[in-house]
Design a protein that fits this description.
This protein has 539 residues and is an alpha+beta fold. The chain is 21% helix and 31% strand. It has helices at 17-29, 39-46, 69-82, 145-150, 156-161, 163-168, 222-236, 239-242, 246-252, 328-331, 409-414, 481-498, 511-518, and strands at residues 2-3, 11-15, 52-57, 63-66, 85-90, 97-99, 126-127, 138-140, 180-182, 186-189, 194-197, 202-205, 209-220, 264-283, 295-309, 340-343, 351-360, 365-366, 393-405, 420-433, 436-447, 453-465, 472-473, 478-479.
Amino acid sequence: MLWIDKSSHNKLFICSPDLKVKVHGICGKHKSDELFDLSSIEDFFNNQADNAPLAFLREGGRGLLRIDENLIEKAMCLVKFWSSYDVISFGDKEKEEYTGPNDLKACVCRFCRRGDPKVKFKKRNAHAIPEALGNKLIFCNDECPDCNVTLSHIDKELAEFLKYRRSEGGIRNKKSKIIKVYGHNFFYDGSSRKLKISPLAILEEKESEYYVKLEGAERITHLGIYKALAKIAIDLMPRNLVDEFQSTIDWIKGEFVPQKLPNVFYIYQSSSVSQPLVQLFVRHDETLNLELPRCIVALTLIDLTFLFIVPLGKGEPIYMEDHIKDYLKCIIQNAPEQSIDCIDMADRIGKYAHVKKWISKDECEIVDQSEFNSFQEKNPNQVDFPEFDASLVKILSCQTSTEYLSPRAELTNRLRIEGSIAKMIHLSIAFDSPPVIRCSWEIEIQAINNRETALRAHCTVVVSHRCISRVCSTEFGEVSPFFLEYVVGVACEHLGEKIADKFCQYDFLQLAGFLMESQGLVPPTKESTEQSVMTTHVD
C-alpha cells in the first residue's frame, strides 16, 4: 500500500485476488450481525478487476474510489507535498512551549542578532503569538526584551482585525479580561454579551432579526496583517532557519516595503479555540521539490485558520498572488472550497475591519449614532487638501544623476520591481519663491533576495503650481501626498529613460508608488469603507 499522506486514512492500493479473499473473510464473519452489514463493501471489491488500482480517501467522507486521472493527480500532489515537508506543531500539547535555546545565555536575538552580555534574555519575556490573541503557552526564548518592546506595534493590525471575534469568542487579554469593543457604529461587551448598535449599522431587517455591518474604529491594512503573521512565523521557526529570512525580518522591522507578496488565505472553522494552534511546514533539505516554498504556516486564531507562505526567503522567487492555493487541500484536507477565502496582498489601502452578521432584535439595543461619534477616526493631518489636479502643475526642470550603477549586467538586466527593495532617502522640499517648489531626494534600489545594491541615484525636480495652497501648507509644513507622488513619478520616468538599456525589465513607471509606500506616504483612499476585510461566516 502507498500512503498518500502522513495520516492513517488516505492510501492507494492494489485490489489483488488475495485482498479480495481477505475482504470476503472479514465480511463473512459479520454476515449475521445486524449492526454491520458489509455486503456492499464485499460487492464493491468483487466487482473490481484483479489488480485494479484503488484509493481510500477520508476527505469529504468519500471512502473507496476507483483511480482515474484526477485522483492520481490529487494523490501525486499529496505525495509531493507530504514527502517534502517536516511539520512542527504548537499549542496542542496543553503545556508551555518554547522556541530557541533553553540556556538563555546562549540566545542570540532573531531580530537584532545581539546576544549575552549586550542584552539579557528572560524566560516568558516574548510571546511568540500575541497574548492579546489568547496565547498563554507559546514563547520565544531568543527574542530580546528590547525587540519585544520595539516590535510590539507589529501585532496591532492583526489584533484590530480580530477585535470583535476576540470579544465574542471570550478571548482574554494580558489582564485576563474579555475586551470591550468600540466601533464606528456599535459597542460590544463580550463579558455581558451586551451589544449597542446605531441605526446606520443595519443593512437589512426581518421580523425578528437585523442584518448588520459592525465597523471597527481604526484603520488597518492587509500589509500590516501579513507583517504580524510573518513575525509570528519568525518567532516559531527553527533557529537554523531564521537566517534564511533576513529580508523578512528587515521588512518586519520597517526597513523596506516589498512590492509584491503572495496572498494570505483563511478558512472559517466550525468551532473556536482559546489557545492559538500552529503548524509550520518546513521544506526539508533532502527533497528534490525545491520549487515548493521553504516555509508555510497554518495558524488558527479563534475560529479562523490563516494559511500563508513566509515570504522573502533567501534564494526563493517572489511568490505571486495565489501560489499557495494548490497546496491548501494538502494542509486542510476536509475544507470545502467555498469556505476558503483570501486576503489580497496587492491591496495596501487602509480600511476598517468589519463583521457582517444576522443578530436577534432581542440581543441588541439601538442607540443614536452620536453615541459613537467619539470613536470616529481623526485625521492625523492639520490640512485637508482638495482633489489633486495635475493640469495646474508645471514642471520647470527635472534632473536625475546616477551615483552608483552595478557593473553586474546579470543583476541589472534581470531585476524586476517586484524583486527589489526601493528606498527614498533624504527627501527635501523647499520653496524657492512661491509658487515654485524644489523637491530633491536620493533613490536606492537593491535586489530583495541578497540585498545587493543595483542603483543609487539623485533626483531634483523644480515645479510650479497655479494655486500653491491646493498642494502645500507652509503654515503646517504639509504637502499633498498626491502632488508628491506626481512629482516623484516625473523623476522616476526620466531616470528610467536614461538607464533603460541597463534595467531592461524594471518598471520605473511603478517606482513612484513603490517609493511613496516605502516612506509611509501612501495617498489616502477615495474608496468608501464598504470594502470588506472580512465577514462572518454563515453556515
